[in-house]
Design brief:
Number of domains: 2
Largest sheet: 5 strands, parallel
CATH superfamily of the largest domain: FAD/NAD(P)-binding domain
Helix content: 25-40%
CATH class of the largest domain: Alpha Beta
Function: Catalyzes the conversion of methylthioalkyl glucosinolates of any chain length into methylsulfinylalkyl glucosinolates.
GO molecular function: flavin adenine dinucleotide binding; N,N-dimethylaniline monooxygenase activity; NADP binding
InterPro entries: FAD/NAD-bd_sf (IPR036188), Flavin_mOase (IPR000960), Flavin_mOase-like (IPR020946), FMO-like (IPR050346)
Strand order of the largest sheet: 5-2-1-9-21
Number of helices: 11
CATH architecture of the largest domain: 3-Layer(bba) Sandwich
Low-confidence stretches: 471-499
Organism: Eragrostis curvula (weeping love grass)
Family: Belongs to the FMO family.
Radius of gyration: 24 Å
Number of strands: 23
């Protein structure tokens, strides 16, 4: 565990959380539990962040090439289903359980995006979070209230916000509001601001170009030839979404060797209108797309599935926090900027991990540091740790843009963080086994892995114990009550509440 300061007097802070998505809501609950006065500012008309589906797109800027921020926050397309099983999601005491027989709910192991939104709404209701969320409130500037240098314990933050029209996102013609907070937690997400490649002829290509941020449904591409740049998660999902609707779909990859997995081979075999090519060499004004191997195709549209960049257009740290090569730095454990800690913190910077379980641990850590129950190392020590971490990544051949992809390169880093800073029960072994099996299935059959039924016996037993939580009246019980689940010989669950 990290250094504890339980003997010290606690300090309750006035904290602003920027964003009411999964990261912001989870952190807000932990901050409130610790006794802090919390205000969550959310620019949209409801909570949910990316999981609040928005059929609108940035029609005037479908590439997302304009200066940040984008007009439409959500990048969710209509057909999205989770890549992670619901058993691996949910916070420790509010699991993402299926709601069978409830209208509008999706009880599948890998549900659609609306089910995650419904879970987050349930989470808010269970813990009274809507009381502290200001909807239709866009944060336009966060800056230190007093000029540095100041000791971290005396730092304050001036948060400037403006009301926006529900649904449209347009700012209301009114004065901006300013409020001073003891601390700010940045949780605005990182799947909104498109990252675009540099391709010869890209600006001269006159046909339709868009980033996957602006993709919603396949119908608008009916009978067209579509080229997808990138064959990561969104590239493969959108390609499958377009098959049978578009005339032809061309996926492109930087490395054909890495892209030609068993899953890709099956996708190509199952869909005659789907093709895989090396990356684009150049684009021609007449609509021709020339690939690196010299082959070409005349296309109607290009969709760039090239990921997103971290963007904090509202945040002014005087250069203490920067984004370069898609690395947010310096951040101690991807959370605290050493020079501004603990009054400024980030939740949700890490990628490819278990959410919101990880956010829960991160929120607990931030809340305890702010109250004085846990202590951070001195700023210079944190800075040295950040520098050593980045050097180790570089030595391992990990590009700077993947600095925060901790789940993709070292999954154990996730478990180590939660164990050291989160004070949460360890991840159950059956859940780890389930995730390992799903990754294997996904690499073998991308199109059908979500609907397979091949759990091991230990996973089946774990799932049955987990499903017994559904037999409880509901999870939104007073926090003074502890839910105890135990197994009896016949496998039935005993559920009892103890004060």
């Amino acid at each position: 565990m990290e250094a504890q300061c339980d003997g010290a007097a606690r300090s309750w802070k006035k904290v602003c959380v920027v964003g009411a998505g999964m990261a912001g809501l989870t952190a807000a609950r932990e901050l409130r539990r610790e006794g802090h006065a919390v205000t969550v500012m959310e620019q949209r008309g409801d909570v949910g962040g990316q999981w609040l589906y928005d059929p609108r797109t940035d029609e005037a800027d479908p590439l997302g090439a304009a200066a940040a921020p984008v007009k439409v926050h959500s990048s969710m397309y209509a057909s999205v289903r989770l890549l992670s099983p619901r058993e691996g999601m949910g916070v420790s005491d509010f699991q993402f359980l299926p709601r069978h027989g409830v209208a509008g709910r999706d009880p599948r192991r890998f549900p659609g995006h609306r089910e995650v939104y419904c879970y987050l709404k349930d989470f808010c209701d269970a813990f009274g979070l809507m009381d502290v969320v200001r909807l239709n409130t866009k944060v336009v500037r966060v800056a230190m209230a007093q000029p540095p240098p100041l000791p971290p314990s005396e730092m304050r933050w001036l948060v400037r916000s403006v009301r926006v029209e529900p649904d449209s996102g347009e700012e209301v013609a009114a004065e901006e509001e300013e409020e001073v907070f003891d601390a700010v937690v940045v949780a605005n997400g990182h799947y909104s601001q498109p990252r675009l490649p540099t391709i010869q002829g890209m600006m001269e290509w006159r046909r339709r170009q868009l980033h996957s941020h602006s993709y919603r449904v396949p119908d608008t591409f009916r009978d067209e030839v579509v080229v997808l740049v990138g064959c990561g998660d969104s590239g493969m999902d959108i390609a499958l979404d377009l098959c049978g609707v578009a005339k032809a779909v061309y996926l492109t990859a930087k490395s054909m060797e890495q892209a030609m997995t068993p899953a890709m081979s099956k996708m190509l075999a199952n869909h005659a209108d789907l093709h895989l090519h090396p990356q684009i060499d150049c684009l021609c004004e007449d609509g021709t797309v020339v690939f690196a191997d010299g082959t070409s195709v005349v296309a109607d549209a290009i969709i760039y599935c090239t990921g997103y960049t971290y963007s904090f257009p509202f945040l002014d740290t005087g250069g203490a926090v920067t984004v370069k090569d898609n690395r947010v730095s310096p951040l101690f454990k991807h959370t605290f900027p050493p020079a501004l800690a603990p009054s400024l913190a980030f939740v949700g910077i890490q990628r490819k991990l278990f959410v919101p379980w990880f956010f829960e641990a991160q929120g607990k850590w931030i809340a305890r540091v702010l109250s004085g129950r846990s202590a951070l190392p001195p700023p210079d020590e944190m800075l040295r740790a950040v520098e050593a971490y980045c050097l180790a990544k570089e030595a391992a051949g990990v590009p700077a843009k993947y600095t925060h992809d901790i789940g993709g390169f070292n999954p154990n880093e996730t478990y180590e963080f939660v164990a050291k800073y989160g004070d949460l029960p360890p991840r159950e072994q059956w859940k780890r086994e389930l995730i390992t099996a799903i990754v294997r299935d996904m690499n073998d059959d991308r199109e059908n892995f979500r609907d397979l039924d091949n759990d091991s016996e230990s996973v089946r037993e774990g799932v049955q114990r987990w499903l017994c939580l559904s037999d409880a009246p509901h999870q939104d019980v007073p926090e003074l009550l502890r839910l105890i689940i135990c197994m009896v010989d016949d496998g039935a669950c005993l559920v009892s509440y103890l004060r």
